């Protein structure tokens, strides 16, 4: 998670088109610049439900705001991979022109190479190639495949595979991290399967509540049971976000930020009911 983000005053001065789109676009825009999931190049994984839950607005408002920003060329969104690109964020977070000796050149190049094949990949490269001294992917692949580096590349691949296998074997006794959850989710053939959704929910709980609950059957079965009963991913995220706000700073209640309590059959239905009441009364969760 980033410790800070730059938001230039021009964000408000040059907001004419966004103002016409309504408050949703303005709110989503400032969130995209300051999101804890963001990075310095402005291209990062961001499901729409993350936007809704972390701002505290409905999925409809989050989607409306995002659509408006896409229409005004503030950002692009790849719905298949759920990656967003905030077009000018690279300039506002870094600078206008990097020098070859700047350590950020290598860091940015790595971030670019690690991106999936998102729809706006070429547009990003065209926009920032000169100022950030980016190599395109074909050039970089050719460099890696050069005879002098072939062995080193193979060794790195083997090390990565060993590390991945180690995470799979050791996660029961260690503290889970984002990489581990990603590995486990990718093992599921269907991204919308109960196990995949349960893993996403448990990861969200760890992130919001500052916990380290392991992706084991003891924790996942409570979440999967609620999903089987018809509870949605959106409901689960909302309950986690709301209960974290209510209990995290309470020495007694913070102990109940756990799957066994949050996803208890009777209690969870009450928590979901509280979300509906809060929406009716004050228009926000």
Task: Please characterize this protein's 3D structure.
The protein has 285 residues and is mainly alpha-helical. The protein folds into 2 domains: 10-142, Winged helix-like DNA-binding domain superfamily/Winged helix DNA-binding domain (Arc Repressor Mutant, subunit A), CATH 1.10.10; 180-279, no CATH class. Helix content is 60%, strand content 4%. The chain has 16 helices and 3 strands. It has helices at 10-13, 16-21, 23-34, 48-55, 59-71, 89-93, 103-113, 121-128, 137-144, 150-170, 178-187, 194-209, 217-228, 233-247, 259-262, 265-282; strands spanning 43-45, 75-78, 83-86. The protein has a 3-stranded antiparallel sheet with strand order 1-3-2. α3 packs across α5 (59-71), α4 (48-55) runs parallel beside α14 and α12 (194-209) crosses α13 (217-228). It is globular and about 60 Å long. It starts with 9 loop residues before the first helix and ends with a helix.
Would you kindly provide a brief summary of this structure?
The longest helix has 21 residues, at 150-170. The chain has 16 helices and three strands.
